[in-house]
Design goal:
The chain is built from six helices and eleven strands. The protein is of the alpha+beta class. α1 packs antiparallel against α2. This is TNase-like domain-containing protein.
């Protein structure tokens, strides 16, 4: 039980005891009972303040929640865009970082991260996107962005410019398998999974 809940229970018990105390006869009752009134007020005011805090906190959390956004987009990388100054990550996929190098079918290195970002930018062009929030299995927040009726994340994975992020969702695993089977994009050569590459870089930086 949380500390706040415990305090509330203590206050409730004290209030109940004060209210339920047997009334004294008129002969035994003093003309004024300022001490009892002060005690009741002292218990009541903090309790009301705590209860008010319980009701206000969720409203503050909701104010920061991600809402549906739409408009022209700026591409940050192959899985991240920006709309109206808000940076949004495409749900369920992962693309190479801008500085990542991959190798094609002839073992030639190429900047796959920049290629993925350029492909996404070309697909969007100057058109407006409609993006809605989507909760992930790991608790992270992402968006599903559509260009007309087309899901951009699905297009990126199906074209081989990004991979399905199975740690977040299984939504795009079918597109991932088809791109692999057809040796499209990243799958035409050799590449390191973006998440694995980042893990290795973080481990190296910590040495």
């Amino acid at each position: 039980m949380s500390l706040t809940a415990t305090i509330l229970l203590i206050y409730a018990a004290c209030l109940a005891g004060t209210i339920a105390s047997p009334a004294r006869s008129n002969e035994d009752r003093a003309p004024e009972e300022p001490g009892s009134r002060r005690l009741l007020a002292a218990l009541l005011v903090p309790a009301l303040a705590l209860l008010a805090g319980f009701q206000v906190a969720p409203a503050r959390a909701d104010e920061g929640a991600l809402r549906t956004v739409s408009g022209p987009a700026t591409v940050i990388d192959g899985s991240t865009i920006e709309i109206g100054g808000r940076r949004l990550r495409l749900h369920g996929i992962d693309a190479p970082d801008l500085d990542q190098i991959c190798f094609d079918g002839h073992e030639r290195g190429y900047p796959c991260g920049r290629v993925a970002a350029a492909a996404l930018a070309a697909r969007i062009g100057s058109d407006a996107l409609a993006c809605e929030p989507r909760a992930a299995a790991d608790g992270s927040a992402g968006v599903v962005c559509r260009l007309g009726q087309d899901d951009l994340a699905a297009w990126m994975v199906a074209s081989g410019y990004a991979v399905a992020d199975r740690s977040v969702s299984a939504d795009y695993t079918d597109q991932d398998r088809r791109a692999w089977g057809r040796r499209l994009g990243l799958w035409s050569g050799v590449f390191e999974l973006p998440a694995e590459r980042r893990r290795v870089l973080r481990a190296s930086a910590g040495l």
